[in-house]
Amino acid sequence: MIAIRDKICLMINELSKINLRKNEHIVGNNQALFASYPDVVGIKEMCEMLNISKPTAYKILSENKICYNRLGKKHFIPKQSIISFCTNLKN
User: Fold this and answer.
1) What is the DSSP letter of 73?
2) What is the DSSP string of 3-66?
3) How far is CA 7 from the centre of its chain?
4) Burial category of 63 from C-beta neighbours within 10 Å (exposed 0-12, middle 13-18, buried 19 and up)
5) Of 10, 26, 6, 15, which is closest to residue 66 (Cα–Cα)?
6) How many domains does the structure of the chain reveal?
7) Which residues make beta-bridge pairs with 75?
8) Higher model confidence: residue 61 or residue 6?
9) Nearest of 11, 2, 3, 1 to residue 76 by alpha carbon
10) Which end of the chain has the lower number of beta carbons within 10 A, N or C?
């Protein structure tokens, strides 16, 4: 079970790095804003980052507005997906 979770985390980290390179010109300011958070966060951290409630966070995830992976009850949300979501809100 732990090996699967580790593989998912590695995969998410790699995807985050690829997306970051694609959007470097947009991401700069938001990246600094969320610098204290790890590359992959859970629901609690996502709520803190966006200053939203848990029901709102689950609604955003269920509407596929932010990419994430789920293992059991745990959500793995790449920080880059949250940054992209914020960037899309501005546009």
Assistant:
1) T
2) HHHHHHHHHHHHHHHHHHHHTHHHHHHHHHHTTTS-SEE-HHHHHHHHT--HHHHHHHHHTTSS
3) 17
4) exposed
5) 15
6) 1
7) 70
8) 61
9) 11
10) C
The answer to whether residue 57 scores a pLDDT higher than 70 is: yes
Residue 71 has pLDDT above 70, yes or no: yes
CA–CA separation, 41 and 44 (whole Å): 8
Is the full-model pTM beyond 0.85?
Answer: no
Residue written as token pair 């996502």: 46
Distance (Å, rounded) from C-alpha 67 to C-alpha 64? 6
State pLDDT tens for residues 17-51.
655 454 444 445 566 778 889 999 999 999 999 99
